[in-house]
Amino acid sequence: MSTLTGKTAVVTGGGRGIGRAIAQRLAADGARVGVHFGTRAEAAEQTVHQIREAGGSAFSFGAKLGEPGDAERLWTAFDEHDEGVDILVNNAGILGSRTSFTDLTREAYENVFAVNTTAPVFVTQQGLSRLRDGGRIVNLSTRFTHGMRIPELLTYAMSKAAIDAFTATLAKDLAPRGITVNAVGPGSVDTDMNAARLATPEGRAAVAAQSPFNRVAQPEDIADIVAFLASEDARWVTGQWIDATGGSML
User: Fold this and answer.
1) Is the residue at 249 inside a domain?
2) 116: which of 1, 24, 148, 159 fits an S-S bond (Cβ 3.0–4.6 Å)?
3) Does residue 156 have an active-site annotation?
4) Claim: this prediction has a pTM higher than 0.70
């Protein structure tokens, strides 16, 4: 029997990149996966198609994040497909523009926080009535909250640092229900977000050199860690930030 048979999972931003790999892995482990999308319905449908082609179960549903009422719309859309959830993966996020602190605008700052921080907080809050006891919440964080600092990504790092605090505090709040809450902090991963940096042999080599394994992380590398945290094997792990950087901060 697959480890997640009978479970329902929701992966926000599940149509592309790390989110797609997470959705596919959870489905491979037996979960029925709700693949959320913001605006790219076609990508989410492609993920659903790939899961079904592999013998899994999945559906897509949409709600744009980062604006008032987003959490309510997300769960209203989800309710058309299922009545409860066992695993919530808050994966959707944006990097924002690389800019110096002196050039940072309030609009850009608030946009990153709206998508990366406010949305997952209230998606989780609104989802608690649907989240079954013994469930799992996994938040996507970043290595930029733990030791690696890039001034041009200040807002992104701040938005994810808030998620780290949310993770640890919510873990204590939900422990009486047997629900674990953890965060996963990737480094540079071969996704659209890093496409420009990885477009040249020199750029790819520089990113690979960040890890002692001397290779670029693939979305599946992160998805496998999330799958562990979503499983029964991780029942004694909660409130933690898991380094998923391939040792890039050693």
Assistant:
1) no
2) 159
3) yes
4) yes
